[in-house]
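Students often ask why inverse folding is considered easier than folding. One informal answer: many sequences map to the same fold, so there is more than one right answer. In these notes we will look at a single instance of the problem. The structure comes first.
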């Protein structure tokens, strides 16, 4: 199957994809706030600029898109059929960078939590998971 739009239009579309303040990120923030947890956003002085930082708990949260960060076994982590070599390389770079970022943060004494985009589609289940992780409730 070939792409139905021009390279320029595809590039424009891809450039419109947000990397911060996404819908899933806002859901996680809302849940944390509802649990009485306070946090900071996008701390640039930490490796990988975590989406959410809970300084008092030395915990960072990355809200990963299943597609871009390759959530294993997730239906949203499909691979495009066209230009497959490019996409496989791109995805592998993302996975490698994510692992390096986690390791750097852990070396600095931070706990790293990843919330996947698909988890935000069932906020009640995600809230239960977060309550368990943060021993709230």
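Output (designed amino acids):
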């Amino acid at each position: 199957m070939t792409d139905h739009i021009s390279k320029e239009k595809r590039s424009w579309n891809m450039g419109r994809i947000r990397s911060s303040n996404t819908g899933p990120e806002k859901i996680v923030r809302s849940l944390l706030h509802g649990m009485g947890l306070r946090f900071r956003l996008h701390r640039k002085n930490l490796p990988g600029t975590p989406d959410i930082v809970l300084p008092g708990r030395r915990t960072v949260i990355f809200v990963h898109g299943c597609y871009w960060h390759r959530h294993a076994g997730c239906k949203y982590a499909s691979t495009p059929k066209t230009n497959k070599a490019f996409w496989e390389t791109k995805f592998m770079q993302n996975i490698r960078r994510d692992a390096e970022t986690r390791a750097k943060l852990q070396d600095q004494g931070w706990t790293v939590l990843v919330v996947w985009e698909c988890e935000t589609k069932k906020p009640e289940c995600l809230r239960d998971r977060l309550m368990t992780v943060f021993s709230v409730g």
